[in-house]
Each structure stands twice: as structure tokens, then as C-alpha cells.
Inverse folding.
């Protein structure tokens, strides 16, 4: 079962990123890399990648879930105009390529690279955009601005979404979404993306078709404090807690309820704080922090029946949730925990530094 990567809070790291094509920056895969960072060699065994700050430098980290191992594989070239106040971004496209970008100061375009797994290098890309996060679709990609960058005819703030062809990065169209986008998700199996603007009970959800630019508003139940968003096959999965209910992390049983509506699936969580969500057509998995740990709960996407549940002790906050053939990976600031939802077994291992993006 393949779970799409669904990236999410657009204001969490203040910048949204990516695009381009161009030159090559070679990085040796030796015992010690630039700045003295120890580099590993497990390019082949790494099935997913992340970015971490190691000894003050941004590094590409390879995650091998089978061996419960995370290694710095390459150091991202550091430049004087890097904007250290905004985290870099990494994402996998539908064709399997991994791209990363580093924001720059004074309005300059983001610096971009492609992870070259064959040659163990970061290939430099050129581009003309800054502070955008890429949402991979099936044949197209969307680049979402980090803050409102335009205004409507009425003077209201709007956020632009650029639709591009990942083959040559040509811009196909530009979409205008009202307000500030705070949530965004996509599925590489679909050319429809899901977007959220505003926050809490005032969050507005919409879907945008990349092929023709059509944007459609999606109804959100009143009183739902929206916290997460997924977009399996272009269908919004909206996750939150009732505003009048318990969304804290003081303990108690976590209750998760799923309702499948005509244009969206709503997941309501009681007794904990929702930190992450991943979804497919068949199931939805949420990571909920509560009582000094985190509950991973999997629900049937059609019936809402609970399929599996596992508890990760000591994990009080999840920054991302990724499915692999070896189990679920739950990312924290300094660690990754592999979780087998069927058996409930967990295995925690260290990142080489502080997580920046995954």
C-alpha cells in the first residue's frame, strides 16, 4: 500500500519552495565532508530523504528504515546569502526525483538542487522563484507562495500558486487563492491539490485542478478546529478537533472518528493534539500526541472503522509521518521512530542532527 507524501503547514517553517534546471555541484561521499561533517555511504539502502542541521550545516540525510539508520549523505553548499531564518525544503516528485531548495536573503530566488543518487551528488538547478513549496502531482507540480503575494480586484489579499511542467519547469498557469495559505497537500497520483487558508475553526478548504486551474471550495463542519490536511487522489481529508472538545495532551483515551462526505473526508480527534496525517483511498493514519506519548491510529477511509493502533512512548511531538515497506516513520526533532501498526512494535533511532524538513 503506497501512502503519498502530504506536506502540510505552510506557515510552520515560514517559507515554501522549489523549481528549476541547470548546473552540477559535486560532493564527495567520504568519511568526512565539508565542515568536518561525517558522511555515510548508504545511498542504495536509503528509501527516503530528509534535511537536517548538522554541526551548523544543512545536510541531506538518507533514511534506511530496514536497518533503522539515518546518515548524512551530502552537505548542501553554504553561501553568504543563505537565509538561515527560513528552513530549506525537500520533496519527492512523481517520477522519483528528490529536489531540495535553500531560501536566500533580499528577495533572491531560492537556490535549488536535485539529489543525484547514482553519482552521489547534488546537481544545481536554476530558477526564478523564491519562498515557494512544491506540491507534486501526477503530471504537473504546484508551487505555493509562502505569503500572500497578490491582491484581488477588490483589494483582498491573495496567494499565488504556479502550475508547472516538471519536465522543463515551464509555467502552465497561475492560480489565485484568497487569503493566506496555511495548509497544503497533494498526491503524486493525482493532478488535484488540496489547500487550506486561515486557521482553527475559521479554516477554509479548497481543491485546485492543476490541469485547468479550476478551484472549488469544500465545506468544513462548523466548530471543527482544523489542524491537518491530506489529499489522497485529490480528495481532501480534513483533520481536527471540536473547538469545545479536548485537544490537549494531558492523557486519557484518544478517540478518532471519521465521516466520509460528498466532497471531503472529515476526521475528528478527541483527547489529544493532532500532529500529522497520511491517507490513501483505503485508509487514514493520524499521529496524536497525548499523555507523554503519541498514538498512531489507522482508520478505514470508507467506513471509519479503526483498523490498527500503536503507542509510541516518550514521543510528545511528531513533525511528519511517512509510510515505508518496513513500517511507518514518525519524525521528531532529533529522532525517527519506525512503527509496525499491525504488531505495535516500535524502533527509535537518531538523526545525525536537528530535523529541518522531511
Amino acid at each position: 500500500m503506497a501512502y503519498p507524501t502530504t506536506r502540510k503547514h505552510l506557515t510552520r517553517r515560514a517559507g515554501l519552495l522549489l523549481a528549476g534546471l541547470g548546473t552540477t555541484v559535486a560532493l564527495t561521499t567520504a568519511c568526512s565532508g565539508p565542515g568536518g561533517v561525517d558522511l555515510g555511504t548508504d545511498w542504495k539502502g536509503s528509501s527516503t530523504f530528509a534535511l537536517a542541521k548538522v554541526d551548523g550545516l544543512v545536510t541531506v540525510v538518507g533514511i534506511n528504515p530496514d536497518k533503522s539508520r539515518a546518515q548524512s549523505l551530502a552537505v548542501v553548499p553554504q553561501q553568504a546569502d543563505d537565509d538561515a531564518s527560513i528552513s530549506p525544503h525537500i520533496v519527492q516528485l512523481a517520477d522519483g526525483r528528490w529536489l531540495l531548495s535553500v531560501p536566500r536573503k533580499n528577495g533572491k530566488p531560492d537556490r535549488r538542487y536535485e539529489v543525484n543518487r547514482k553519482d552521489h551528488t547534488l546537481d544545481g538547478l536554476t530558477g526564478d522563484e523564491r519562498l515557494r513549496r512544491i506540491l507534486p502531482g501526477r503530471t504537473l507540480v504546484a508551487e505555493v507562495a509562502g505569503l500572500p503575494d497578490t491582491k484581488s480586484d477588490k483589494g483582498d489579499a491573495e496567494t499565488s500558486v504556479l502550475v508547472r511542467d516538471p519536465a522543463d519547469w515551464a509555467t502552465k498557469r497561475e492560480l489565485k487563492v484568497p487569503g493566506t495559505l496555511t495548509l497544503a497537500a497533494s498526491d503524486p497520483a493525482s493532478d488535484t491539490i488540496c489547500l487550506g487558508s486561515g486557521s482553527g475553526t475559521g479554516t477554509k478548504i479548497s481543491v485546485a485542478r492543476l490541469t485547468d486551474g479550476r478551484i472549488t471550495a469544500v465545506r468544513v463542519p462548523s466548530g471543527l478546529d482544523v489542524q491537518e490536511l491530506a489529499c489522497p487522489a485529490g480528495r481532501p481529508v480534513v483533520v481536527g478537533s471540536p473547538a469545545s472538545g479536548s485537544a490537549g495532551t494531558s492523557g486519557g483515551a484518544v478517540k478518532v472518528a471519521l465521516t466520509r462526505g460528498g466532497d471531503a473526508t472529515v476526521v475528528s480527534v478527541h483527547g489529544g493534539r493532532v500532529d500529522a496525517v497520511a491517507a490513501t483511498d483505503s485508509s487514514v493514519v493520524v499521529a496524536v500526541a497525548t499523555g507523554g506519548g503519541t498514538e498512531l491510529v489507522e482508520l478505514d477511509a470508507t467506513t471509519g472503522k479503526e483498523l490498527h493502533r500503536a503507542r509510541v512512548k516518550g514521543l510528545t511531538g511528531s513533525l511528519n509521518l511517512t509510510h515505508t515497506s518496513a513500517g511507518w516513520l514518525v519524525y521528531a526533532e532529533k529522532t525517527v521512530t519506525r512503527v509496525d501498526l499491525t504488531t505495535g512494535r516500535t524502533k527509535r533511532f537518531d538523526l545525525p542532527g536537528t530535523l529541518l524538513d522531511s
